[in-house]
Amino acid sequence: MRLGVGSQGRLRPPLLRALAPRLRTPLVVALVLLSQAAMRSSTRAASTETEACFAHLREGQVEAQVVAAPPAPLADCAIAAPVQLASLRLANGEIVKLPDHPILDCAFAATFTEFVHDLVGPLGAAILGSPVVALATGPGYECRSRDRVVGAKPSAHGKGIAIDLSEIVLADRRRIVIAHPASAVEEVFVRTIRRGACGWFTTVLGPGSDAAHADHLHFDSLSHGANDNYRICE
Ligand SMILES: [Zn+2]
Fold this sequence. Notes:
Helices cover 35% and strands 21% of the residues. By secondary structure, it is an alpha+beta fold. A hairpin with a 4-residue loop joins strand 9 (167-170) and strand 10. The longest helix has 46 residues, at 14-59. 29% of the residues are buried. Bound molecules: zinc ion.
């Protein structure tokens, strides 16, 4: 019997080869339709999740907007539900501005703004006697390798689940520089934020951790190993 060679180099009989395009066409169409339906349903699920998360941010008095996925020049960068933050309102009505307008994954944006709402804002007013009015955070999302080391694992910034904090601005125009608190009380403020941050994030790094974090606090929500409760708090 004569055998034909299939597209994958496999041998198959001529009758099957002759029928294959006819069999294949409906099969391919069905597969395409199925995969399109699956994509539509996963996109719908993702957008419903994003809408719920965005509504949650708005309820929490966070000024934010849904944005398009930012550029991802490295293969491992992706942001699930990108939102861009502008400010948030504290419980006492004071506004904390985020002038760097960081782009974050929505769930992480909710965690970060809760951290500012529940800890950074009230603590600033209580310890330093002046409301916190702005935070210098950098861009949040950034598609790069960890610590900018070539070939290293992708940074949590490349997934939109990390943010940095380098300065805290108060209503009386004081700027608390994370790397150089100007007084003992500012030092207590920064140290307390750093310790407390581990209640919200899985990773907290800062001055003294390593050279890459000498001038800012880094917060992220990466999973470390199998246990979601494992934290790196340095
Ligand atoms: Zn960072």
